[in-house]
Amino acid sequence: MRKNKTTHFMAGILIIFFVGIFLTLTGRFLYIQATGEINDVSLEEWADKKRTASYTLPAERGKIYDSNGMTLAYDRPTYRLYAIVDEAYSEDLEEPKHVKDPEKTAEMLAPLLDMEESDILKRLKTGIEEDRFQVEFGTNARELSQQKKDEIAALDLPGINFEEEAVRFYPNGMFASQIIGFARELEQENENGGTTQEIKGIAGMENQMNALLSGKDGRISYQRDNYNTKLLHPEEVVTEPEDGDDVYLTIDQKIQMLLEDTLTQVDEEYNPERISAVVMDPKTGEVVAMSNRPSYNPNNPEDVENWYNDVVSTPFEPGSTVKMFTWAAAIEEGVYNGNDTFKSGSYQPNEQIKPVHDHNGGEGWGTITYDEGFQRSSNVAASKLAWEKIGPDKYLEYLKAFQLDQKTDIDLPNETAGEILYKWPAEKLTTAFGQGTTLTPIQQMKAATAIANDGKMLQPYVIDKIVDSNSGEILKEKSPNVVGQPISKDTSEQVLKLLESVVNGEKGTGKMYKLDDYTVGGKTGTAQIPNPEGGYLTGNENHIFSFLGMAPIDDPQLMMYVSVKQPKLEPKEDGTIPTGSEPVSFIFKNVMENGLHYLNINPDKEKTEGVNRVEIPSLIGKNAKDIEKELSEKGLQVTVAGKGEITASNVTEGDSVLPNDHIILVTENPKMPKIIGWSLRDALQLANLLELKTETFGNGYVVTQNIESGKAVKKGDYLGIELELPNQEQQSEEEAEEENNES
């Protein structure tokens, strides 16, 4: 009995205990059912969140164009490869949608992704073992081109998929890279605490105009299943992205490409420390071309020697190009008589001031006129004008009137102004001929617009307009901005004549800057380079050689500054040693002569000194075969893309071109010509005329093309071209020959 009582008591306790648990759980379930909450968390909201996918809809970054509407930067679609390894994804399907054979998949993908087969296989097997849904393959499987994607897709490998991604692409490579800059995909933290990929400007115009170019991302959310497939009623919510605005530059693609090619030639031949060049329209202040060496390819900005745009960011002692402003100040002040004479060689105002010497070792040229002193680039003449004729205080006022003491406020990042050293008497003398004081090339160009433009000084600029990428509406447009008038029209005309005498006068230092068809005026410069240990570097090569010139001199339409720092002046085959002006003049003459003709500026010389130019006839609507024959007979290289009537060309009626120039004619039914051996510039011109999507690999001349010659092409087709420098091919042949000899 005692035992039964105890048993019944314990059983009762257990019953009460389990009933209590049951009631508690039941009450909890009833509470959850009634309120729909657990620990203040709404189950409905939680479930909705779990089954709702939310993604960013990236805005398309605005494009950057040149002044003629040629694309310089855009978002190029690329592809990221990934593999689905979850076997459940293929349930109830006739064909598998997951990686069924990892070994075969790794074997087929390895050569196309340039990866080890074992690496791919390891990633696939690890994903399967860890029950992942999908796996990725690192950087080798990202930014795949359309061509590469098509090659992989043709393998028809189960489970291999692609996701489209945008990367910033620069179709012209190194072209104007220090103006355009570059943008890269960076990780950005989003509002949910996660990360998203965003293309952001890092340097140049991409950085300067990043806010306008970026636009505003949109968003999409919908309900989905475990495999991210939309439900039948997904309750989709979409906020459309706002694409970025387009930026049009004042840069002219043809003149810029001409400048790039010429700078590359000089860089390879003379191996200088630095080259800077800028071309402007002196009537408007528009920069039509600007480049430096070293430069970089924004598609692959690695091992960059120089991030700075030296034209606007690197002040240096300019040398004798400053003399044009010294003479302008003297003329404007009314104290200049070109026929007055002075004794050249050396000049010392008093015993406390270090004497100034002319550039020929202080020997001078005896007693000469001030006009001749300008032609010969006399330091003594410049010093005497500033010290005796104008007066140091008044001369400083003119330097400030030319705004040589401040930034130009050009619409480019990282502009740095030079410094006028004017504290000690010696500095007041040396500033007059460009020593001691520092300036940037763009500061000098801005000041020189006053000489080229009737005394009116214009602000330089590179952004032409901002355009809404969707509507085409012009949101903002720039126009010429006169920022000062340091000299009168009469003074500017007198200085132009002096500049002409430097190039065309009997005693001028700029004779090698003459053009065939246009009269040039300008000022040479040979600036010493400060020695970190004190004083200046010595030796023929240790200078910055420069020229600031304009043409046609009676009414300048283009103005150009070129500087070459420390070129390697190796002896020529005949034993002569080149001067530092040779690389400078090579750049100036090539760009200015061809640039003026391209702009259809009428030559101001009656004779072209043996060069017979060809005038382009009417082309559009004419039979391509007939025009090809006509132009070929005149000595031009002609390429016809297709047959029938001409619809487009890289030249227009009335253009004046040189013999052997390359003329491209596109017809109504275009076909791809053979472009092996073409320059990048010619290849891009063709692609632009045919409206192809172009991708380039390497630098130099075309060695492969993915569209076979003779194949019909249409707007939007993809053209991939590989380029190599001639010495690379030669080097490859030599290496192969060496290997054969060794074997």
UniProtKB/TrEMBL annotation:
<dbReference type="InterPro" id="IPR036138">
    <property type="entry name" value="PBP_dimer_sf"/>
</dbReference>
<comment type="similarity">
    <text>Belongs to the transpeptidase family.</text>
</comment>
<dbReference type="GO" id="GO:0009252">
    <property type="term" value="P:peptidoglycan biosynthetic process"/>
</dbReference>
<dbReference type="InterPro" id="IPR005311">
    <property type="entry name" value="PBP_dimer"/>
</dbReference>
<dbReference type="GO" id="GO:0071555">
    <property type="term" value="P:cell wall organization"/>
</dbReference>
<feature type="region of interest" description="Disordered">
    <location>
        <begin position="724"/>
        <end position="743"/>
    </location>
</feature>
<keyword id="KW-1133">Transmembrane helix</keyword>
<feature type="compositionally biased region" description="Acidic residues">
    <location>
        <begin position="731"/>
        <end position="743"/>
    </location>
</feature>
<dbReference type="Pfam" id="PF03793">
    <property type="entry name" value="PASTA"/>
</dbReference>
<dbReference type="GO" id="GO:0008658">
    <property type="term" value="F:penicillin binding"/>
</dbReference>
<dbReference type="InterPro" id="IPR050515">
    <property type="entry name" value="Beta-lactam/transpept"/>
</dbReference>
<dbReference type="Pfam" id="PF03717">
    <property type="entry name" value="PBP_dimer"/>
</dbReference>
<dbReference type="InterPro" id="IPR005543">
    <property type="entry name" value="PASTA_dom"/>
</dbReference>
<dbReference type="GO" id="GO:0009002">
    <property type="term" value="F:serine-type D-Ala-D-Ala carboxypeptidase activity"/>
</dbReference>
<comment type="pathway">
    <text>Cell wall biogenesis; peptidoglycan biosynthesis.</text>
</comment>
<keyword id="KW-0812">Transmembrane</keyword>
<keyword id="KW-0472">Membrane</keyword>
<protein>
    <recommendedName>
        <fullName>serine-type D-Ala-D-Ala carboxypeptidase</fullName>
        <ecNumber>3.4.16.4</ecNumber>
    </recommendedName>
</protein>
<feature type="domain" description="PASTA">
    <location>
        <begin position="610"/>
        <end position="669"/>
    </location>
</feature>
<dbReference type="InterPro" id="IPR001460">
    <property type="entry name" value="PCN-bd_Tpept"/>
</dbReference>
<feature type="transmembrane region" description="Helical">
    <location>
        <begin position="12"/>
        <end position="31"/>
    </location>
</feature>
<dbReference type="InterPro" id="IPR012338">
    <property type="entry name" value="Beta-lactam/transpept-like"/>
</dbReference>
<dbReference type="GO" id="GO:0005886">
    <property type="term" value="C:plasma membrane"/>
</dbReference>
<dbReference type="Pfam" id="PF00905">
    <property type="entry name" value="Transpeptidase"/>
</dbReference>
